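Collaborator request, handled under Task 6.
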Amino acid sequence: MTAPLHGLLTADPVVATSGVALFADALRDQAVPVTEVGWRPPMPGTEADLARVMADPRREAANATALARMTSAEAVLVDVAPASEALGLERGTFLHAGPPIGWDRASGPLRGALVGAVLLEGLADTPEEAERRLAAGEFDLEPCHHRGAVGPMAGVVSPSMWVYVLRDDVHGNTSWCSLNEGLGKVLRYGAYGPEVVDRLRWMGAVLGPILRQAVRSTGPVDVRAIIAQMLQMGDEGHNRNRAGSLMLLRELLPGMITADAPSSDVGEAVRFSGANEHFFLNLGMPACKLATRAAEGIPGSTVVTTMARNGTDFGIRVSGTGDAWFTGPANTPEGLFLGDYGPDDANPDIGDSAITETGGIGGFAMAAAPAIVRFVGGDVPFALRATRRMYELTVGEHPLFQVPVLGFRGTPVGIDVTKVVRTGELPQINTGMAGRVAGTGQVGAGLVTPPAECFPAALAALAAAVPR
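Structure tokens returned to the collaborator:
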């Protein structure tokens, strides 16, 4: 009579549970070993769209193509140039971070950065005049992403600002990013005082031309190779760039010190670059943008190609839905604050720098840089868990970007909308925090996730695009 039970009543039970923990807890109280399965229901109201997209016969091959393109994309620094030259940026046009937005809904730091850029371009004599002209709609505002570029924090780029020019010859794409101003009261955090504008003018007159000579004299710089090395040296490529910045300076220094410029200018350019721990960030961002650009426009692909925020809205774009934005209210990061600043001083999430997570580094590579938790909050186990969780949301691993503490496993890359919706787990981003009030500057750094509603909206668009 016992044969049909196969010894079930005479052996120690092996129990796996999912869902509510009540049953598992009751078994543990009876000294029964339990394995809890981390299953979660999909995001509410997504079942029909999820079923349709999951059944799309194009999806697996499309995502494999997206992953292959992302991980094979090159990122080579080939030039440094004014935005008017590199991007064809016209006088009176200003790029900004995140999805499209007008002055009426712009956040404090974005408004502050736009005011500073108007002053830099000589289009107003005072902050008050700049604000009046911006409010009157006299200038054109456009997302950096719409021109294949990226901008940190407020991300404002004006014609006279200099930008790095990066190329991916494998897929024929170019991307751009402004030069990094350093930390503190800087334009990208919404500060616009005289010291901010004066620094930007110096960067345009001195730093940019010296860096251009350095790049042109030393030859193209393989930025992707630097990212791979910095992950081995304790950086994650978003908030920690110490090793990357030093490696970049090593590449550029011979050309900088032989540049045709006064020795005092060369010395100041070298000092400024060497003292800026985020010197490399503005090359890591367009490198990741090139990777995600390579994966754009693949029918049936559910891979996220853009995550960006403007301080008001957080937006994503997906390979299979082209240039469409799916947005929700930006969350406010939680983390550590500078000086006397606190949570009430922080603006909601802002910047194009989440392109690093989109490309498989930054918050997705926190396990490679456990020291980052001292800057953004959390602890070392959290950093390890964060990276491990991101494997659940992605279509693959990066063959070049590796995490030593995980046995040199490739970083998780290729955020999959269907996996986010199925698990309810959101991408992890680590970021700086800008002051809510225009002109404040940086107030801290922390951790944040996208608003959940971006992903069901993208899923619905993907479902609508499935051939019937």
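The cover message to the collaborator said: "Residues 3-37 form one domain. Residues 194-218 form the longest helix (25 residues). Please let us know whether this matches your experimental observations."
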